Amino acid sequence: KMDDDDDIPQLSSHALAALQEFYLEQQQREGMKTSQGFNQYSIGSIEEDWQLSQFWYSDETASCLAKEAVLAAGKGGRIACISAPSVYQKLKEQDDEDFSVCILEYDRRFSVYGEEFVFYDYNHPLDLPENLLPHSFDIVIADPPYLSEECLQKTAETIKYLTKGKILLCTGAVMEEQAAKHLGVKMCKFIPRHSRNLANEFRCYVNYASGLD
């Protein structure tokens, strides 16, 4: 009879060594984070997870969008970030500012942010906690996880439910017509960049006079 082990693919010793090195580096990175008393809100604190279709913005883009959100929300304003964790993290870094923010995100790792974290699945756009009152946010920033009309349409329901009016949407350039149709937003001149280059061209869309032109 055949040896049962035969059909189990074996990693070459080279691949195994590379894998071990990878895990070691990861552990060192984790170790560094804790030993540096590092800022829990910084971008690196939670690594992007491609399985969840997460792609972090570059530092400049996240800062620029966070600044825009604070200006748009105004003094004492409320900002909601839907599937846009890197903007949320930038907003948390400038905590001395006068605004409040909440993050709606499918990735439960963000529950480390406590009260401000709201588990969010775009398939159930209005399945929101009672304390998120309709039209209670001065601006909603959203970056739907998938470039599909269905995803945009469902996320749009959440956006429209939460915002008092202002919307800042980040999605692919190919979604321009759908973004106008579902949210009445127009493309800005500002080009958002990601920390890793994505194949799809990304753009920002707004429905108010923003500083992104």
UniProtKB/TrEMBL annotation:
GO biological process: any one?
methylation
Q: What GO terms fall under cellular component here?
A: cytoplasm
Which compartments is it annotated to reside in?
Answer: Cytoplasm
Q: What is the lineage of its organism?
A: Eukaryota, Metazoa, Chordata, Craniata, Vertebrata
Q: Which HAMAP family match?
A: Methyltr_EFM5
Instruction: List the PANTHER family hit by this protein, alphabetically.
Output: EEF1A LYSINE METHYLTRANSFERASE 1
Molecular function terms in GO for this entry?
nucleic acid binding; protein-lysine N-methyltransferase activity
Predominant subcellular localization, coarse grouping: cytoplasm
Statement: the UniProt record of this protein carries the keyword Secreted: no
Pfam families named in the record: N6-adenineMlase
Question: Catalysed reaction per UniProt?
Answer: L-lysyl-[protein] + 3 S-adenosyl-L-methionine = N(6),N(6),N(6)-trimethyl-L-lysyl-[protein] + 3 S-adenosyl-L-homocysteine + 3 H(+)
Q: Which InterPro entries match?
A: DNA_methylase_N6_adenine_CS (IPR002052), Efm5/EEF1AKMT1 (IPR019369), Mlase_EEF1AKMT1/ZCCHC4 (IPR041370), SAM-dependent_MTases_sf (IPR029063)
The UniProt entry, under SUPFAM superfamilies, shows: S-adenosyl-L-methionine-dependent methyltransferases (SSF53335)
Give the residue range of the signal peptide: none
Glycoprotein as a keyword? no
- Tell me the organism: Motacilla alba (White wagtail)
- Name the chain's protein: EFMT1 methyltransferase
List UniProt keywords, sorted A-Z: Cytoplasm, Methyltransferase, Transferase
